[in-house]
Design brief:
The structure holds two protein chains of two kinds. Chain A is of the alpha/beta class. Among the domains of chain A are: 253 residues, Rossmann fold (3-Layer(aba) Sandwich); 67 residues, no CATH class. Helices cover 51% and strands 10% of the residues of chain A. In chain A, the strands form two sheets. In chain A, strands 1-10-7-4-2-3 form a six-stranded parallel sheet, with helices on both faces. Chain A has a four-stranded mixed sheet with strand order 8-5-6-9, sandwiched between helices. In chain A, a hairpin with a 4-residue loop joins strand 5 and strand 6. Chain B is built from five helices and twelve strands. In chain B, strand 10 and strand 11 form a beta hairpin. The chains are: A alpha/beta, B alpha/beta. Chains A and B meet through helix 2, helix 3, helix 4, helix 8 and helix 10 of A and helix 1, helix 4, strand 9 and strand 10 of B. Strand 9 of chain A pairs antiparallel with strand 9 of chain B, so a sheet runs across the interface. Bound molecules: iron/sulfur cluster.
Chain lengths: 464, 199
């Protein structure tokens, strides 16, 4: 997907002034935040599990080549095929080729964030394939032609009324004014026809198991399972960081994933798929392919952003972020929003495309506090700010340079600042400063008090 | 050099094979009666359940269909224990399920007390589609197949003659919260999940 992260400021302003979005965002707290807290209260060992999960991820990344090769061999043993994609374009091509070579046209998609990341749908549609998103949230935003605004609740920004409108336009049924149960029933009715006609199923993966060659998907609707079971071919698209050694390792991560994401102990469906259907099986696909996507991940292994590869995409950092809570997901301009997105987007799409994102944080630390794999998100955001500054992507750089120059020369600094302060005192009205030229954007949300009658250093000198 | 080689080479620049494998936390060991815990957790997951004997099973299924005003039709799995399932008032189907499948009856390899989950798998005598296409999914679980925690299910699967293509760990009916964060049952899979605990 194309990023619009460069327009972050304009996007954020529009989001703050969108009453429908603001209403939707209010529901975040009662939904995800409260449910997560309740779920973790029932898990006294959570801190120890979090530490173990983080240590496990560190071990895996340090042996990533070994586990990926083990995984690949296991998939082959089970009759599946593994494809390696270095970047988004290669990933898209591999998937499109797999479908086209078999002459398969009707594609069912389960929810996959890496699929969004590499822009799969555009490529498949351009190749003349018919792509249906089968997750209800993804289906809604597919009809609306929008990107997801949350990594686990892609249509969280849409109201019931808007969904009704979208369904009315797309289906042969008037659904305006329908309530939530009616809308879900309508989606079920329409999707059934697609499920029964689908020829290729594409899903993501929450985990890849090196031991067995399985992929695990964790869902609530059952759409991913139908997409993986009914069509002739199943294609799994997954980032290379998803591999774990054994089922026992996956179990630890499963225990913290659903609780952190939706506050469930287990989602309705936790499913392992391993290879194509066995010869004697009654159902299942005849072909099973896995596309392992790098797209910048291997580069992240060296350097300060390595821990970002621990991410299990639970969404907790979004749900607890005051900035995400104020502007929603679209303002971030790409597929990954919130704190994890503010780290991932610059790393994948380039800092020049997304230099504002690391700035969009108060560094309050809630994201790190709730992250089930203890990713130091605030530290990384700060690190990215340094990188952005060094690469010249930060506005006001000249001002900061000047300040740094003066701060290193205390005498000059004092002289100039006393001149500036005297001028400011002269401009002050009733203890407050009026708008000063060149500070417009910054001042819009802040009042600046007039400087005190004397500076601290003057006061100190006189006391001595 | 292939893409695979290049990706692995980049990974090797950052993977030094030094960080030891941590010890995983102990699997939870629930106290008290596992069957009771399973029943409580089934309820928490919005699945219904009842206990019955093997002889009572057909009548219990018939009563369930009637209670829920479902057609007297049932898509039955052919696995051992169900292949002979029979009730005079119920029309049985052994073919693939479809849009008209109102109720399906399957077995399960295990029930997990910790989470209220059922473990099902694919095979020559069963259809995974039954678990997802029916409006009502009825699952027969022998009470001796109840295990304590998720970890206990893995050895059972490893003991199977072949690793199955599909393993479904099912915890309650299908649901979605994609419309205004309100939970609705029966998104694409079953609206109701009913467990028959057989002794
Ligand atoms: S960064 Fe942590 S909290 Fe955020 S989505 Fe990833 S795992 Fe969840």
């Amino acid at each position: 997907m194309k990023s619009t992260s460069v327009h972050f400021h304009a996007n954020a302003r529009a989001a703050l002034n969108d009453p429908v979005l603001q209403d939707a965002l209010k529901r975040l707290k009662a939904g995800f935040v409260v449910k997560r807290r309740e779920a973790l209260e029932g898990l006294p060992d959570f801190p120890a599990m979090r530490e173990a999960a983080s240590a496990l991820k560190k071990h895996i990344l340090d042996h990533l080549d070994i586990y990926l090769e083990q995984y690949e061999a296991a998939v082959r043993r089970q009759g599946g095929e593994v494809h390696w994609a270095e970047d988004a374009e290669q990933a898209r091509r591999i998937v499109a080729d797999l479908c086209q070579r078999q002459g398969l046209r009707r594609v069912l998609k389960g929810k996959t964030m890496v699929g969004e990341e590499v822009g799969l749908n555009e490529e498949l549609e351009a190749a003349g394939l018919e792509v249906v998103e089968t997750d209800l949230g993804e289906y809604i935003i597919q009809l609306a032609k929008e990107p997801p605004s949350h990594i686990i609740a892609p249509a969280i920004h849409k109201t019931r009324g808007q969904v009704g409108e979208l369904f009315s336009n797309a289906h042969d049924n008037d659904m305006s004014g329908a309530n939530a149960p009616e809308l879900v029933a309508e989606a079920r009715r329409v999707m059934r026809r697609h499920f029964l006609a689908g020829e290729v199923g594409i899903t993501g993966a929450n985990f890849l198991i090196a031991e067995t060659g399985s992929n695990i998907i964790v869902t609530n609707e059952g759409n991913g399972d139908l997409s993986a079971t009914l069509p002739k071919m199943h294609i799994v698209v997954a980032g290379i960081e998803k591999v774990v050694p054994t089922l026992e390792d996956a179990t630890l991560l499963l225990r913290i994933l659903a609780r952190s994401a939706t506050g469930q102990r287990m989602t309705s469906y936790t499913t392992l798929h391993t290879g194509p259907k066995r010869t004697s099986d009654r159902d299942g696909p005849n072909a099973y392919h896995v596309v392992l996507v790098d797209n910048g991940r291997s580069r992240m292994l060296t350097g300060p952003y390595r821990d970002m590869l621990h991410c299990i995409r639970c969404g907790a950092c979004l749900n607890h972020c005051p900035v995400y809570g104020a502007i929603g997901g679209h303002a971030y301009g790409w597929v990954y929003p919130g704190p994890m997105g503010s780290v991932l987007t610059p790393l994948i799409t380039g800092l020049d495309q997304a230099a504002s994102l690391p700035q969009a944080s108060s560094l309050c630390g809630r994201c790190e506090a709730v992250c089930p794999v203890a990713i130091p998100l605030p530290r990384m955001l700060r690190e990215l700010r340094f990188d952005g500054f060094d690469q010249g992507h930060v506005s006001g750089r000249g001002l900061l340079r000047t300040w740094a120059f003066l701060a290193c020369r205390p005498r000059l600094y004092r002289r100039i600042s006393s001149l500036l302060l005297a001028a400011a005192r002269g401009l002050a009205r009733r203890g407050w400063l009026p708008a000063l030229p060149g500070t417009g954007a910054w001042r819009r949300a802040r009042d600046l008090p007039a400087p005190a009658a004397q500076s601290f250093s003057d006061w100190w000198r006189r006391r001595q | 050099m292939t893409s695979r080689d290049r990706i692995l080479e980049r990974i090797r620049a950052g993977a030094h094979h030094q960080v030891p494998r941590p010890r995983l936390p102990e699997a939870p060991a629930p106290e008290g009666d596992l069957l009771e815990l399973l029943q409580d957790n089934l309820t928490l997951a919005a699945a219904s359940h009842q206990r019955c004997s093997t002889q009572e099973l057909p009548a219990a299924v018939a009563a369930y269909l009637q209670r829920n005003q479902l057609p007297a039709k049932l898509w039955v799995s052919d696995e051992a224990g169900l292949v002979d399932f029979h009730h005079p008032d119920i029309e049985l189907h052994h073919e693939s399920p479809g849009a008209e499948t109102s109720a399906a009856l399957t077995g399960a390899l295990a029930g997990i007390a910790e989470t209220g989950s059922l473990v099902l798998h694919s095979g020559a005598d069963r259809r995974t589609a039954l678990n997802f296409l029916a409006d009502h999914h009825l699952v027969v679980l022998p009470v001796r197949s109840v295990v304590a925690c998720i970890e206990d299910a893995w050895p059972l699967l490893r003991e199977l003659p072949d690793w199955p293509r599909t393993v479904n760990i099912i915890t309650g009916p299908s649901r979605t919260a994609d419309i205004e964060q309100t939970i609705q049952m029966g998104a694409h899979g079953p609206r109701s999940l009913h467990i028959l605990l057989v002794h």
